[in-house]
Amino acid sequence: MLLSDHWQLNPEIDFLNHGSFGACPRIVLQKQRDLIDELERDPIHYLAPERQLEPKLDQVRQTIGQLINAPSSDIAFVRNATDGVNAVLNSVPLEPLDEILITNHGYNACNNAARHVAEKTGAKVTVAEIPFPLKSSSDVITAIEQEITARTRLVLVDHVTSPTGLILPVKEIIALAHKNGSQVLVDGAHAAGMLPLNLATLAPDFYTANHHKWLCCPKASGFLFVKPELQDQIRPTVISHGANQIRSDRSRFRVEFDWTGTYDPTPILAVNAAIDFMGSLYDGGLSELYKTNRQKTLAARKLLCDELQIDVPSSDDMIGSLATIPLNATQLPKTGNPTHATDQLQRILYQEHGFELPIFQFGSASAPFLRISMQAYNELHQIERLAVAVSQITT
Ligand SMILES: Cc1ncc(COP(=O)(O)O)c(C=O)c1O
User: ∠ CA(208), CA(121), CA(188), 5° rounding?
Assistant: First the structure.
């Protein structure tokens, strides 16, 4: 049996975009269906938080706590990383002229959330301009050092960047921000399931991540870690019963996030099944999965760069399971307009060659960028075929 047989992805498409929304294995989807059946047999008993839901969520909290090396009591569940980022941004106290520091590699939705909160509070958004291509992770630190000021209250930084697929030096960024008196919100949307995580060592103030990307859980679920002394401040994006519930058995932080109105908890409750399954793919468990995906990604990046005669755009140590390659302007389909050329390349790759991967513009570059994802179901021969197709279209 091929590893790809565990997924129900369309065999006519080479799916190289695990990074956007993930892809859920058959066995995990079946587990979720079973959970839905169980819920629908007795909806009140299942969903009433103090009857079955909270104890069930607590079991998953234990699993996530072990995965990220954090106390389970510091973990709340969110629908996705965008939700986690919004919860924190809307909760941290900000005054006019306070600064929220974001980066130009940040996820657009989350950077928009920072701008929205700044508009409401009178705070200012500052942007650290990280170059790409770049030489090493010290270029990231330099970019942040240039923008951090005494007014910076919150640094919002990605653990793994969405457009450029870079693992950022978050430990150093957190230390730098703390030295400067600022809190740090790490957007780890891609990190859970791609890298080993140790929040005790990283020591962020806030860390959010998706379960549905690299852990291959059903959509939509994620976690939000908040360090204990800040938990009273942080409220979910939806205020519900927990706001005025008197509970002596658990924190308001957990009570509020555990119930944000009626929702489907099965994507969260399938987390244990997903982690068990992904950990069973290789003898060495999740660490071997991370290592194998990374090796495949590095090999794929090198193959594409060699074939398309492009310099590798970052050092290997910044790569996990995503890699972005800036195409040369000379490799554009000849439309005369960069936006049209980007859209056209994406369309031709999908419709005529059967590839699903993002082709996009980034920053002020005139040529598009291409991002690949390498999950357990991906093989290097897909990249060999991609390199040939891109060369054919662009020359
Ligand atoms: C860095 C980063 N943050 C946030 C998100 C948003 O994820 P979601 O739509 O699941 O909230 C993404 C999605 O790709 C991402 O790459």
Answer: 10
> What pTM, to 2 d.p., does this model score?
0.97
Computed over every residue of the chain, the mean pLDDT equals 96
Q: How far, in Å, from the CA of 82 to the mean position of ligand 1?
A: 6
Question: Do 3-16+285-394 and 27-275 share a fold?
Answer: no
Per-residue pLDDT of 147-157, as tens digits, reads: 999 999 999 99
C-alpha pair distances (Å), 84 with each of 78, 110, 257, 262, 318: 6, 10, 10, 18, 24
Which one of 3.30.2130.30, 3.40.640.10, 3.40.1110.10, 3.40.1390.30 gives the CATH number of domain 27-275? Answer: 3.40.640.10
Cβ pair 21, 219 in contact under 8 A: yes
Residues whose beta carbon lies within 6 Å of some atom of ligand 1 = 20, 80-82, 107, 109-110, 158, 162, 187, 189-190, 210
CATH topology for the 3-16+285-394 domain: Aspartate Aminotransferase, domain 1 (3.90.1150)
